[in-house]
Each structure stands twice: as structure tokens, then as C-alpha cells.
Write a structure and sequence with these properties.
The chain is of the alpha/beta class and about 280 residues long. The chain is about 40% helix and about 20% strand. The chain has two domains: about 200 residues, Vaccinia Virus protein VP39 (Rossmann fold, 3-Layer(aba) Sandwich); about 70 residues, rRNA adenine dimethylase, C-terminal domain (Helicase, Ruva Protein, domain 3), CATH 1.10.8.100. Strands 4-3-2-5-6-9-7 form a seven-stranded mixed β-sheet, sandwiched between helices. Strands 1-8 form a two-stranded antiparallel sheet. Helix 2 packs across helix 3 and helix 8 crosses helix 11.
């Protein structure tokens, strides 16, 4: 490993006090950042996107692999300056000062591409959903979330954690929790523990219209969890939609499997198409 300044010295030099408005909690333990990178699997020849590198703890671990390129996307100018210094020592690292919420991540680098990131808590879920819409563009996503979000992503039907995010993630990817990280490992420590989720996109992905239909269907179904589906889905077809998908109207959203939600979304898409033709 190259000789690098201590991460705490980098934080002090660039005035990188973690800001709540940016969802910042820095992971400075290089043993843990190395474990996160190992969870991503072999990175030789891969182009890796990191969102929210902060002072560069995870970035350093990525540079210690045989990745072909690392693209660090950072919105905080203080962290951009810190990562730019790191880029001067390794030509594989490219820094992009931008808001990841407004970017097409796949356009940042060539394939095969992965995303490996300790995501800012305040935008982690919308970032993930945006990437899931284009999951075919990525070989793998290795992402750190608040533990409760990680558990929702990987939850099975029937449990309290199972919801819209579970369905969208597992419909498009294989999902597993690779490791859990205690709050005390971060600077400053958040109020909750974190976990790293590895998402591996399925070989066959839904088209944009099908994904949009799944988003609408799951939003309606889980928007009123306590209601039977005939009530929860009333705004998008109710019992007629459920009959088309061969699902009993007395069931509740958390009992449906991914395959059943896929039938619901397909039925919804078909009903929308039929109504458009009639008009």
C-alpha cells in the first residue's frame, strides 16, 4: 500500500466536519473499508463508481485493488479537494464534483461497471431506486445503508420489513446483507447501525414501462399496509386489477411474493394500455 496521510489528518486539513445536511458519517477504519471492497468481489478490470467518498477511506481501499478505474462522485467541495489530492497519486482515480441524484451513473464510465459506496443516509433510497431502474447497466452494486434500510431491501414476504423497496430490489437483483457495521465505527457515530448490501442484477431485466408499472403498483399496495388489497389498490383498478392478476382481493400487500407483484404490475400495464387504446 502507498504511503498516505492518516484519514483523520485529511479530515482536519480540509475542515471536513461531517454535515447533517449532506447525510455525512465518515468511516475511517481501513480494516472495515477493505472488508466492504472485498464484499464487492474481484474488481480487476472493472470500472467502479463511488458516491460520496468524503475524506476517501473507501476510495483508498478501492485503489488498493486491480480496478481499471475509480470514479468518485462528490457534491461537497471540501471532500472534492481531499479526493483530488488522492487522485494525484493514482491516475486510475477520477473525481466528479456533482450531485449524484442528478446524474446518469452508467454514463460516467465504461462497462463492466460496478457501484461501491457508503451512501449518504439522506439520499440512499432514492439513489438506489434510480439505479434499479437501469440495473442492467451494472455488474454489481455494493452499498452501505442504515441497517433498517438494508433489512427492508433484503426482507422476505410476510415480515414487517417487507415493503416496496424489497420488491423493487429483489425483482431486479439478487440481494444479500454482506456485513453489519456498528454506529461506533463512524465519525461522528450515527444513531443507528449500518449494513452493506450486495445487489447482483438478474440476467433479464424489466423494460422501462414495466418498471414504472411496478413502482405504481407497489406504491399503492404498500401505501395503505393495513388495508386489504381491494381497498389499497382502488385508485389503480382495485378488484378488477386483482382479478386480472388472479390474486384474492382480501390479501394484504406484505403477503404477496415478488412473482405475484410482477403479475399485478403486468396487469396494471395491460389495463393502462387498453384504456389508452379506447381513448
Amino acid at each position: 500500500m502507498p504511503d498516505r496521510p492518516r484519514l483523520r489528518d485529511v479530515v482536519a486539513k480540509h475542515g471536513l466536519d461531517a454535515r447533517k445536511s449532506l447525510g455525512q458519517h465518515f468511516l475511517l477504519d481501513e480494516n472495515l473499508t477493505a472488508r466492504i471492497v472485498r464484499a464487492a468481489g474481484p474488481l480487476a478490470g472493472r470500472h467502479v463508481i463511488e458516491v460520496g467518498p468524503g475524506p476517501g477511506g473507501l476510495t483508498r481501499a478501492l485503489l488498493d485493488t486491480d480496478a481499471a478505474e475509480i470514479v468518485a462522485v462528490e457534491i461537497d467541495p471540501r471532500a472534492v479537494a481531499a479526493i483530488a489530492e488522492l487522485a494525484q497519486t493514482d491516475g486510475r482515480l477520477r473525481v466528479v464534483e456533482a450531485d449524484a441524484m442528478r446524474m446518469d451513473a452508467a454514463a460516467l464510465c465504461a462497462a463492466p461497471r460496478q457501484i461501491v459506496a457508503n451512501l449518504p443516509y439522506n439520499v440512499a433510497t432514492p439513489l438506489l431506486v434510480g439505479w434499479l431502474r437501469h440495473a442492467a447497466a451494472f455488474e454489481r452494486l455494493t452499498l452501505m445503508f442504515q441497517q433498517e434500510v438494508a433489512e427492508r431491501i433484503c426482507a422476505a414476504p410476510g415480515g414487517a420489513e417487507y415493503g416496496r423497496l424489497s420488491v423493487l430490489a429483489q425483482w431486479t437483483c439478487g440481494a444479500r446483507i454482506a456485513l453489519r457495521i456498528p454506529a461506533a465505527a463512524f465519525v461522528p457515530p450515527p444513531k443507528v447501525d449500518s449494513a452493506v448490501v450486495v445487489l447482483t442484477p438478474h440476467a433479464v431485466q424489466p423494460d422501462p414501462a414495466s418498471f414504472a408499472a411496478m413502482e405504481r403498483t407497489t406504491a399503492a399496495a404498500f401505501g395503505q399496509r393495513r388495508k386489504m388489497l381491494r381497498g389499497a389498490l382502488r385508485s389503480i383498478g382495485g378488484e378488477r386489477l386483482l382479478a386480472a392478476a388472479d390474486i384474492k382481493p382480501t390479501r394484504r400487500a406484505e403477503t404477496l411474493t415478488i412473482a405475484e407483484f410482477e403479475r399485478l404490475a403486468a396487469a396494471h400495464l395491460g389495463m393502462v394500455a387498453s384504456s389508452t387504446l379506447v381513448e
